[in-house]
Amino acid sequence: MSSDPLLQPYKLKHLTLRNRIIVTSHEPAYPEDGMPKERYLAYTVERAKGGVAMTMTAGSAAVSKDSPPVFNNLLAYKDEIVPWIRQMTDAVHEEGAAIMIQLTHLGRRTRWDKGDWLPVLAPSHHREASHRAFPKKIEDWDIERIIKDFADAAERMKAGGMDGVELEAYGHLIDQFVSPLTNELDGPYGGSLDNRMRFCMDVFKAIRSRVGDDFILGVRYTADERLPGGTGVSEGIEISKRLKESGLIDYLNVIRGHIDTDAGLTDVIPIQGMANAPHLDFAGEIRAATNFPTFHAAKIPDVATARHAIASGKVDMIGMTRAHMTDPHIVRKIIEKREDEIRPCVGANYCLDRIYQGGAAYCIHNAATGRELTMPHIVAKADSRKKIVVVGAGPAGLEAARVAGERGHEVVVFEAASDPGGQIRLTALSPRRKEMMSIIDWRMAQCEKHGVAIRFNAWAEAETIEAENPDVVIVATGGVAHTDVLSKGNEFVVSSWDIISGDAKAGTNVLIFDDAGDHAALQAAEFLAGAGAKVEIMTPDRSFSPEVMAMNLVPYMRSLQKLDVTFTVTYRLESVEKNGNQLIANVGSDYGGISKQRIVDQVVVNHGTIPLDDIYFELKPRSTNHGEISQDELIAGQPQSVVRNAQGQFQLFRIGDAVSARNTHAAIYDALRLAKDI
Ligand SMILES: Cc1cc2nc3c(=O)[nH]c(=O)nc-3n(C[C@H](O)[C@H](O)[C@H](O)COP(=O)(O)O)c2cc1C
Ligand code: SF4
């Protein structure tokens, strides 16, 4: 038996967990009609197959109708969920993992214009900044109803074969009762700590009396809200002790912080550039104070930190949740001594931000996550070996090369630069975003493992490519910054990439015209203002940085507000003129009737990229398919069969930003879904 602390079994009441790594509750927003159907099943089972000890499915499954999901959660208040849950629990158990589910009532953390349009409720009228609903103050009959709803839902989960349920008690209704900041009730549910914890205890009692003792019951709760007037450390420790002493629950899952604002949520679930394991020591303090089974997750992205968490006795089970979204097979790789092959979570929070903005979680650099029904986590070998030339070693090119290499093809990559990475290399120049380079580093290591030849400083000409005698050519040359968007004066502006790369010297009074709304404008602003410039970001949109989603925006705002960067929305830069050493920026508006000027010494335009596609168009007439990709075959997961020129020498495909400016995930998905069928 292994001596690795992470691989030791753990006895949780009657359950034996096969190792110490769990996936904590999270809702990837994959339910269909509020039910965990085939997609949900495939996602969950993949992680069980990968060896995790326990997967806690369904963050925040709703127990009541007046807790409508804001991002597509499971509806645990419906009886029809039981067979879907049964299908999932059977499949997970078959793979040797345990499975639990998190139940909740969101209280004020939702909206009245969702679900059945019922009023939102909470133990006070204070609204939550993030979800904005003004709640009704909860009444006695609401409390009775919701306690029963929790018990009913728990009974459904037991009937569906779950090993247990966890209650969500940070930021949601249970915590809204516990926190003095959100509870303005008089007794018996408001006032003293006893009273504020009464709702939580009543829910546990109701559940326990329904499900009996041989069912795990746990709580994920904040033991320190880190807000003036909120639950502090000493009260948090007292709450922890009372939870244990209630005898009603089997473990504590410790959270530190509050989630009522984007900034608070980001401190609870830190993103790239923030410290790893920021709350682990605190979780250890709770374990020491209670001597009770303690679980915890918050940016433990790597096995070494997880191992430390267990070996040091800080916690009993360690969560690696986003890490499992990036690589579902972490435990298997630890067992097989292939830790170095684990695809690393880079903390980009594309997954989390996207459940709100895009409606489903996707991992920035694992396009198979959430697409298990159509995309493989482990690529199958091809029937016959082909020669494949890839042009470009950015994320799209390297993903295509990795997948083709894993399929057993002979792969050559041409890269004009001296290093791999393309736009990611530029992105990673911001110190806070340097984790992004792991997207490239992991692919480089995988390419090496699969014998992919990468030629740097190699500008691929059509003849060089043809000399390789390829069966397939994949053009992944990316794009170049596109600044040619003004009616006059394009020659006077620089791009955000010029600023980030250092190719353009920072001005002192700078207007950034951000028409793309992505990270690059904010990164450029950070570089400029950091160098001492006065910076204004102007956008024609009605909100700034629309492509930089909520949690990703937090570190930028923390930095840019301190640097006094200003934001102007709904104005469009139309032209630029030179006036001595200064530039005159002429500004209008899509709403019409406005014309203003700004006098600055530098104008930066952020307008995405334009494809670098010369080589593609040069190769096009020489290819069998004239570069055409059959969308039907691509979507159906079939090999590409278009023939437009039988005399052609090779199949030609174009992916990523070489087609049109999109994002890292889109580039990687383009590559995976094409190359897996070559
Ligand atoms: C897409 C997504 C949805 C989540 N939803 C929930 C949720 O509903 N309830 C919950 O307690 N935590 C939720 N989480 C938080 C995770 O359980 C976990 O605490 C967080 O990701 C930090 O752990 P990690 O760094 O190991 O990922 C969610 C996380 C992600 C990525
Ligand atoms: S999107 Fe980023 S944070 Fe989320 S799982 Fe993938 S790498 Fe990790």
Structure description:
By secondary structure, this protein is of the alpha/beta class. 33% of the residues lie in helices and 18% in strands. It is globular. It binds flavin mononucleotide and iron/sulfur cluster (SF4). The site of flavin mononucleotide has 24 residues, from β4, α11 and α13.
Q: What is the average per-residue confidence, as pLDDT, rounded to a whole number? A: 97
Number of helices: 23
The quaternary state of the protein chains shown equals single chain
**Helix amount:** 25-40%
Structural features:
binds iron/sulfur cluster, five-stranded parallel beta sheet, 23 helices, alpha/beta, eight-stranded parallel β-barrel, 678 residues
In short:
33% of the residues lie in helices and 18% in strands. With 678 residues, it is of the alpha/beta class.
Write the layout of secondary structure elements.
Layout: E1 10-12, E2 15-17, E3 21-23, H1 38-49, E4 54-62, H2 81-94, E5 98-104, E6 121-122, E7 136-137, H3 140-159, E8 164-169, H4 173-178, H5 193-196, H6 198-211, E9 216-222, H7 233-245, E10 251-255, H8 262-268, H9 280-290, E11 294-296, H10 303-311, E12 317-319, H11 321-326, H12 330-335, H13 350-357, E13 387-391, H14 395-406, E14 410-414, H15 423-427, H16 437-449, E15 453-455, H17 462-467, E16 472-475, E17 479-481, E18 494-495, H18 496-501, E19 509-514, H19 519-530, E20 534-539, H20 550-562, E21 566-569, E22 572-579, E23 582-588, E24 596-600, E25 602-606, E26 609-611, H21 614-619, H22 631-636, E27 651-654, H23 664-675
Parallel strand pairs: 3-4, 3-12, 4-5, 5-8, 6-7, 8-9, 9-10, 10-11, 11-12, 13-14, 13-16, 14-15, 16-27, 18-25, 19-20, 19-25, 20-21
Antiparallel strand pairs: 1-2, 17-26, 22-23, 23-24
Helix pairs in contact: 1-2, 3-6, 8-20, 14-16, 14-23
The chain binds flavin mononucleotide and iron/sulfur cluster (SF4).
Iron/sulfur cluster binds at residues 322, 325-326, 345-351, 363-365.
